[in-house]
Design goal:
Layout lengths: L1 H15 L4 H6 L2 H10 L7 H9 L7 H15 L2 H9 L13 H38 L7 H30 L6
Length: 181
């Protein structure tokens, strides 16, 4: 059992590494930096590459990584990407020029609104499923007691309110379905 635990621990550590052993050995630091730029990684992110590659005796080429990152950042710093980041529920990385901040955060906010509404709809749909499951399991016996009839009426009323709320949220979500470009 200890072997499994130790093995699982090392697999977990490997999964947390910024690069694979193969990527470290390949050493295409310009491409690695470019991809990190596209993903909005800050300059300090290279320290994770140093840690990952240290295990195989490789030292990252910082200059090539920085040049690649600088080429990738413009693809991260677009309103469409900021919207996608927000829509995914993630924070916008502070790597873009200050002259773009207003535009990017407006697009990010738009995406965040879509994300929040989607989460609310999911929670309501879960509640709706739970209520329907409860109705189908708890109210099978006939005749129902007066308390059960009252409870069933309350549950059905809640289902109608949930349906109206989901409809309202879906109408609102359509407004945020694409970036405000």
């Amino acid at each position: 059992m200890r072997i499994y635990t130790a093995g699982a621990f090392f697999v977990f550590l490997g999964a947390c590494a910024s690069l694979t052993q193969e990527q470290c050995l390949n050493g295409d630091w310009g491409s690695i930096g470019y991809n990190d730029g596209i993903n909005g990684q800050q300059e300090s992110y290279i320290s994770r590459h140093f840690e990952a590659c240290e295990k195989v005796g490789i030292v990252p080429d910082t200059r090539a990584w920085l040049e690649g990152r600088a080429q990738g950042l413009p693809l991260y710093c677009t309103p469409q990407n900021a919207y996608s980041v927000g829509r995914g529920g993630d924070d916008l990385s502070p790597v873009c020029p200050s002259s773009q901040q207003n535009t990017l955060y407006r697009a990010w906010d738009w995406g965040q609104e879509y994300y929040i509404i989607t989460r609310e709809v999911s929670e309501l749909e879960r509640e709706e499923r739970d209520i329907k499951r409860r109705i189908s399991s708890d109210f099978l016996l006939d005749p129902l007691t007066p308390e059960q009839i009252l409870e069933l009426a309350h549950l059905n009323q809640r289902l109608r309110r949930i349906d109206r709320e989901i409809y309202r949220l879906e109408e609102r979500r359509r407004r945020y379905a694409s970036a405000p470009i």
